[in-house]
Specification:
single chain, 335 residues, alpha/beta, three-stranded mixed beta sheet, 10 helices, 14 strands, globular
Length: 335
C-alpha cells in the first residue's frame, strides 16, 4: 500500500479502527485534519467501517507487521483500541484475553520503540476499578478489577505507565464508562456479533420484537431497583481522543482520565427511552442479579474537564438512544 497523508495531514495509526469506538475516532481524526491508518484483523471489526483512511489488515500481536505500518505511513502517533472486550467470555477464555490485550500492548510498545514513536493514546475501561466503594469514581480510586477483561486492561495500563515513567513513551490512558449511541450522520454505528450492550439489545428487542430482553436484578438500592451506569456518547469519546492527542504534544508523561458524563442512568430509564423513541414496547423478562454487578457505577469527569478541556456534549439518554435507533433502522444487518 502506498504511503498516504502529507505534512498538512499527519498520519495517525489506529489499531482496531474497524471497530465500534475506533471507527468513530477515525472519522473525528479525519475531520480534524489527520489521516487515520487503521490496523485491524477484522475478527470483530468491519471493513465497511473504514472510510477515512487506509486499512492495513493484520494482527497487533505481530510486532514486525505493526512496525512496518508505522514506518511506511510515517506515523506521528498511535491510538490503540484493538482488544477483546466481552467480560463474560473473558472468564472462560483468559488465555485469549491475556494474549490479545497484554501481548498486543507489548507488541505495540516494541513497534513504537523500533519506529521511534512516543505518542500513544490507550483505550482503557472503567472495569479497571472493579467495584469501588464510592461514586462518582475518580482517577485515584483503587484499581481492583473483578474480571479477567479488567485485569488485562489494567496490565496494559501498567505496562504503558511504566514505559512512560522510564521516558520511553508519552501516554494518555482513557477509561471509558459505557460507550453508547452512533454517528449522528448515520455513516457508522454499533454492530457487534454477538451483541452484549444494553441499548442495541433493547432496540433490537423493540424494533424486531425478538426474544425478551433479560433485566438482571430489580432489587438494587437504586431509585427504580435496577443498576445505574454512566452512558457516554461515542462521538463524545471520539472528541476526547483528539483532546488527549493534543495534550501529549505539550505535556509528556502518563495521564489517566475517566470519560463519562457523571450521571447514573438506570436500566429501566434506558428501556423507557427506547420505547418512547421507537414507539414499540421492549419485551423483557426479570432475571436474577449477575455476579459482580455493582448497583451504581458512574464517573467523576472533573479531571478530563480540567486538564483536557473536555466535557461530554450529549448527556441526555435520548441523544444516545436516538442515534443508535437511527443506525439500527438503516443498517440492521450490518453486523
Amino acid at each position: 500500500m502506498s504511503i498516504s497523508g502529507s505534512v498538512d495531514r499527519p498520519n495517525v495509526v489506529v489499531t482496531g479502527g474497524a471497530g465500534y469506538v475506533g471507527s468513530h475516532v477515525c472519522k473525528a481524526l479525519s475531520q480534524a485534519g489527520f489521516t487515520p491508518v487503521t490496523i485491524d484483523n477484522l475478527a470483530t471489526g468491519h471493513r465497511w467501517a473504514v472510510k477515512w483512511g487506509p486499512l492495513e489488515v493484520g494482527d497487533v500481536r505481530d510486532g514486525g507487521f505493526v512496525e512496518s505500518v508505522l514506518r511506511r505511513h510515517r506515523a506521528t502517533a498511535v491510538l490503540h483500541f484493538a482488544a477483546l472486550s466481552l467480560v463474560g467470555v473473558s472468564a472462560k477464555q483468559p488465555f485469549d484475553y491475556y494474549d490479545v490485550n497484554v501481548n498486543g500492548a507489548l507488541s505495540i510498545a516494541h513497534a513504537m520503540r523500533n519506529a521511534g514513536l512516543r505518542k500513544l493514546v490507550f483505550s482503557s475501561t472503567c472495569a479497571v476499578y472493579g467495584m469501588p466503594p464510592t461514586t462518582p469514581i475518580t482517577e485515584d480510586a483503587p484499581a481492583l478489577p473483578v474480571n479477567v477483561y479488567g485485569r488485562t486492561k489494567l496490565a496494559a495500563e501498567n505496562l504503558f505507565s511504566d514505559l512512560a515513567r522510564a521516558g520511553e513513551i508519552d501516554v494518555a490512558l482513557l477509561r471509558y464508562f459505557n460507550a453508547a449511541g452512533a454517528d449522528r450522520d448515520g455513516e457508522i454505528g454499533e454492530a457487534h456479533d454477538p451483541e452484549s450492550h444494553l441499548i442495541p439489545l433493547a432496540i433490537r428487542a423493540a424494533v424486531e420484537q425478538s426474544a425478551p430482553l433479560s433485566v438482571f436484578g430489580t432489587d438494587y438500592a437504586t431509585p427504580d431497583g435496577t443498576c445505574l451506569r454512566d452512558y457516554i456518547h461515542v462521538e463524545d469519546l471520539a472528541a476526547a481522543h483528539l483532546k488527549a492527542l493534543a495534550l501529549l504534544d505539550h505535556k509528556p508523561g502518563v495521564h489517566a482520565f475517566n470519560l463519562g458524563t457523571g450521571i447514573g442512568v438506570s436500566v429501566r430509564e434506558i428501556l423507557a427511552a427506547v420505547e418512547r423513541l421507537s414507539g414499540r414496547p421492549v419485551p423483557t423478562v426479570i432475571a436474577p442479579r449477575r455476579e459482580g454487578d455493582a448497583p451504581e457505577l458512574y464517573a467523576s469527569p472533573e479531571k478530563a474537564k480540567r486538564e483536557l478541556g473536555w466535557v461530554a456534549a450529549a448527556t441526555g439518554v435520548d441523544a444516545m438512544v436516538g442515534s443508535a435507533l437511527n443506525w439500527h433502522r438503516k443498517h440492521r444487518h450490518a453486523a
